[in-house]
Amino acid sequence: MSPSGRATDVVVIGGGHCGLAMSHALSQRSVDHVVIERGEVANAWRTERWDSLRLLTPNWMCRLPGQAYDGRDPDGYMSAADVAGFITRYAARVRAPVAARTTVLRVTTMDEGYRVHTDRGDWSCRAVVLANGACARPALPQLAADVPASVAQWTAKSYRRTADLSPGGVLVVGASATGLQLALEIQKSGRQVLLATGEHVRMPRLYRGRDIQWWLLASGVLDQRIEEMDDPMRARRLPSPQLVGTTERTTLDLNAVRQHGVEVCGRLSGIRGKRALFSGSLRNVCALADLKMNRLLDGFDAWARGQGLDREVADIRRDRATEVAASPRLGVDLGCDVRTIVWATGYRPDYGWLDVPVFDRRGNLRHDRGVVDTPGLYVLGLPFLRKRKSSFIHGAEDDVSEIAAHLFGHLDRAAGLTRRGDPVLT
Prior knowledge:
FAD/NAD(P)-binding domain, single chain, 5-stranded parallel sheet, globular, alpha/beta, about 25% helix
């Protein structure tokens, strides 16, 4: 290692739940490391979430290695502040060596590892774990640049509350969990909302008396591995299911938001001058979402029968098909009927400071289930990284366990040592 700067075995970038879970794994093996966080622990949950946001998973599912849910409402859904508190307590419990309020400026290679340049000095290390999350920057479509200057634009990351929006109509683009939640909240504030709807994943909040996440977990769906998928890239791009966490455990779907006055339109297909254009495929998109939902529920029913659980769960009841207007709107005037656009079109990770040749032609990180395409570099926290549950807080445990095994092997090789009996990642 270079004698300049501070030296350690591993630098973990990101002090969220994934970075801290990796810190716990490293500490258990007495591996020297540091967790670099640009703000405080759980910074994104503290500063980059809208006020009313709650998790899509019930509290009993929120666990990390060495820490289960520690609150009094296991069937509820944590707010962003609750999540921040849960992660902060975890950092204290595992005694994570966090370098807070430290910004990573650049990561470069060295002869024996990496140099991590920060605004508070440099670190040299043998391995780097990228755990800064998948939601670093909003994924805006190119047509966002065509929106007239008279129309205010917000993203799910910049939006906080309805009071911040200008008066007038609002177009919410995206019908995943975020899009539906924001559309309903804004509609209830007295503004007329249009919801541009493309491909989406429909799910009931409760099915046969159990939370839908219970079914996904118990039946093994969340444990499906990425290598089992016919199209891994598509599996990783699927939108989050249409769910919301409320005390009433209500279902949130297109039927629900229409009942409150939200006008559901097709996918936003273009902007011509001051007019936004919508696709005419809304009916087909909704029919496909209904079909996939019922196939999933059929699978749950078959699993319950096979497990002998039919008497322990409620009778089979299905929500009605998605209702679509006879002639859905195909366009709207921007600046007149719509004064604000809220983009609920997902997020992308940000590795702009990673000065290592590990990106493809589209700028995506080249990795195999978290093992990046260069020795000693790893990534955590991406959708469906190894299992379908990778996106959830509780999904970090399995991902970290497997990736840490590979990391330990790398450190052993780098040190010229061989530990027998350590698991090998395949």
